[in-house]
Amino acid sequence: MRRDLFLGLPLTLPTADEPEGGLRLRTVWISDLHLGTPGCQAGALLDFLKQVECDTLYLVGDIIDGWQLKRQWYWPQAHNDVVQKLLRKARKGTRVVFVPGNHDEFARKYLGHNFGGVEVLEEVIHTTADGRRLWVTHGDRFDGVIQCAKWLAYLGDWAYARALAWNHWLNSARARMGLPYWSLSRYLKLKVKRAVAYVDDFEAAVAREARSRGLDGVVCGHIHHAELREVEGVLYANDGDWVESLTALVEHADGQLEILDWSARLATRPLPAATTALTAV
Fold this sequence. Notes:
By secondary structure, the protein is α/β, with parallel strands linked by helices.
């Protein structure tokens, strides 16, 4: 066992190879895992990582929630298993690139370094199989609250955590009644006009920056809202999150991009017993 170089997290290094799943992709982007928080859907995430093989895996920020861990330590075995799985993918030949976000901004001290095969970079230009050049960034620098009133961001983070706690109890009751997962916090955000305007402003700002750089598009995270569309003449792609929506952006062998909704896949089959147990930790 060794200590992770970022947070002193105890990690058991992978020793035995595990069989990978059958979903073969060229590139995968995931962000906003928020490992270290009760809201992280670690069981579903681990299931996704086991089922998917790819040449390149981008971790587009807020992978580990340093804000939450500073307030209260929370690190169940399920979260450890996710980190081990990411390290195992890097060891087996997948290029794994970590682009830090605001919740794991501590990792920005290590830009340009490589830890266990995971590259830490501030931003990346990704070229798709069909030749499009996409800027990969977390996106927090385009959030006015983060840049100008960080105390308000911390307050919002606290309120968001409370909403997720209510969400947990609500969905526990829904599961007992045989009803599918439903996100209370996501519903509330979409119903608030100011939140919708914030999302629109964020998307436009990120797209304008990509266009000013002469690029074909941008891939980001940060706002927990998966999207794949054209904004102001460039491709805007947001890979969503693994707290509420359970989504990833993926690139197929021909360069086609797609938002992969893992919650929809889980609705058609239960998680394996071991993974279900991890979720309940």
